Amino acid sequence: MLEELLPGTVAVVEARDLDGTGYLPLLPEEEPLVARAVAKRRREFTVVRSCARRAMEKLGVPPQPVLAGDRGAPRWPDGLAGSMTHCDGYCAAALVRLTDLASLGVDAEPDGPLPEGVLASVALPAEVERLRRLAELRPGIHWDRLLFSAKESVYKAWFPLTGRWLDFSEADIEITVDPEDPRRGTLCADLLVPGPTVDGRRPSHFDGRWNARDGLVATAVTVPRA
Predict the structure, then answer these.
(1) Residue 221: beta bridge partners?
(2) Are 93 and 83 in contact (CB under 8 A)?
(3) Which letter does DSSP use for residue 53 in this model?
(4) What are phi and psi of 39, to 5 degrees?
(5) Cβ(14)–Cβ(92) under 8 Å?
(6) Is the pTM of this model over 0.90?
(7) How far is CA 169 from CA 107, 187, 191, in A?
(8) pLDDT value at position 112?
(9) 3-state percent helix, strand, coil for the chain, nearest multiple of 5
(10) CA separation, residue 132 to residues 62, 121, 180, 215 (Å)
(11) For residue 17, what pLDDT band results from cuts at 50, 70 and 90?
């Protein structure tokens, strides 16, 4: 799902069989974070951190605990940027050296409609209109869920660069469909607030890619170096 959405410099590890074996156990420093969690939450937490440590190994970085920082965002080893995602039946982690990308964000969601009322709380009027047109042209994808995933990926890429919240209404996302494959494409998020400073420049938008298959929609956003 995610590996095809990201540059080759990004180490991606994905997992589908969350009830299987072969996952790395939690490290002692991580255990308190889910000490009172229900079994499902603990399993996803364990598997996604196993994915993260496998991704560290791909980059030649000694596996380390992934603890929670500000607003619960993961704290990565020095010199790395990363993002994690999990939903029913799927976990993934993507890591990259900061010399290759300034930041990235990934998200995966079940390819089903958003719950009642959620779209109105996350989408701008222009986004709703564009989703309506997409649904007319390509009815096989739940575009509202894809937009939600894109908003999540944008936020995950934004927060490590700013340390600030980005509201759903502060990024206007346009989704484009690949003419050769209607189940994948690109996305562009226009930032409606001042963007972060990256290598002396202030980007006005974030770019990304998406795909939809195997019952999931996935999005990935990358912020390049100058």
Answers:
(1) 105, 208
(2) yes
(3) H
(4) -60, -40
(5) yes
(6) yes
(7) 18, 16, 9
(8) 96
(9) 30, 35, 35
(10) 47, 16, 21, 21
(11) confident
Q: Which two tokens stand for residue 144?
A: 């509202």
Amino acid 224: pLDDT: 97
d(CA 153, CA 158): 9
Which tens digits make up the pLDDT trace of 68-103?
Answer: 988 889 999 999 999 999 998 999 999 999 999 999
Q: What does the pLDDT look like over 142-194, one tens digit per residue? A: 999 999 999 999 999 999 999 999 999 999 999 999 999 999 999 999 999 99
| The two three-digit tokens of residue 209, written as one number | 């890619």
Token duo for residue 63: 């596996």
The token pair at 83 is: 């993002």
DSSP 203: -
Encoded tokens for 112: 């089903």
Helix spans in the chain (H): 39-58, 118-122, 125-137, 143-162
